[in-house]
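Re: beginner question about structure tokens

> Can someone show what the tokenized structure looks like for a real chain? I only ever see the sequence side.

Sure, here's an example I had lying around. Input first:
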Amino acid sequence: MIIRLNSGVSGGIGYLRDGQMSGRTSTREELDYRVVMIGDAALTERIIENMRSEPGVTRYGHYTFSVSPEDVTRYGQDVVSDKLRQVSDSFASLIRAAYDEDETSAIYAEAHLPRLQQLVDKNGRLHVRAPHVHMIVPKVNMVTGARLDAIGRSQNTFGTKVTTLKLIDEFQELMNERHGLVSPKNRMKTRTVGAGENRVSRFRGDRFTDPKAAAIKLAAVDAAYMSSSLVEFNKRIKDEYPDAVVGRSSKGFTYLKIKASSGKTVRLDAPHFSDRFFKLPQDQKVDRLREINKPETRELLGRLGRLDAVVDDVRAFDERFADFERRWKIRAMETRYIASNNSTRHKQYVAAVRAGMSDDKKLDYLNELARVDRLERETDSPMLRRLNAALSGKPDEDTIDAVVNGGIFERKAARDAVLGQIFGNESVLSASTTHE
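And the corresponding structure tokens:
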């Protein structure tokens, strides 16, 4: 899967809807099935059309996530579509890292699942088409009306050696790893196993003369490892092999036996198919199976070892992704609050970063900028302007109660600032606390 960053002034939603582009005659209806991933296309289109901007200034970000045809061959189109939906949700989280969800409520994304698997362009070149997602993000804050550019300039570094583009690239590779998608940087190497090669018999070079007998033995060892009693073990075997019957040894012990394809009978009468084994803790079961050293026990132990390795890999991935999210959070907030290269704030911040400002210090500073920004927005809201106009300097109890207890503002600091701005004296502010 590869992520491409682009932007536009107009026509983005129209392209998704119609599929028209230079050198192409096919319509979207002929090319693809359209699947909405996020948002409402008509709403996003209206917002972009009604934005006010200088000529040539981009009005929206246009991001695409494209998988390889190899992914479709491996998983099928439905599974790939689900993986793309998850990638879209994760990328939307990047967009919103420094914003509230309502500030970015106009995000729109749709998947294109090819009807036409191949397409010949105007130059006669053949293109193999695969599922992909288009995401359109209007560059406007839906709460304040201010410009919103969540990704910013791809080459921004804010005093570090890491560009924003490099962070997006890191996100791309993390998504490829998480969802098992082909990376453009590391093409998947595939290997075909011979049709006659049995999964069990490949383990450590062992070969079984009867594939069904090998499968029965492996299933029995697996059931033994998972069972805590003879009753549970017998049920597991009976569920998988209904033709299993009870046998009796010369010493009077009962056991299950199952016919293999060769006509021979597989007898489940070994010590690791006994109630004593079933009651052992899992780690002791592993020790016993290691001592037995049969092909089927080695196969199970190999699978358990691979499972442990997978668990370790998942844990390591989660740690790396959490680290990325933290670094992206910093970059997203830098893009929102520090981005202007000509500002004094930008120059001071970059100087501090180059002097060794830690990530913790960055977050503290950026969170304070976010707090002040929110406070300024809340204390300069249309609600406040209406209250000021209505009051004309003469507050009344109903208005005080609406501001204090009406849930207009999320935080006490913002509420107190509003009261102070409206009433302009500490006595009224102090009196307002009696309404809590």
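Each token stands for a local structural state, so reading them left to right follows the chain. The mean pLDDT is 77.
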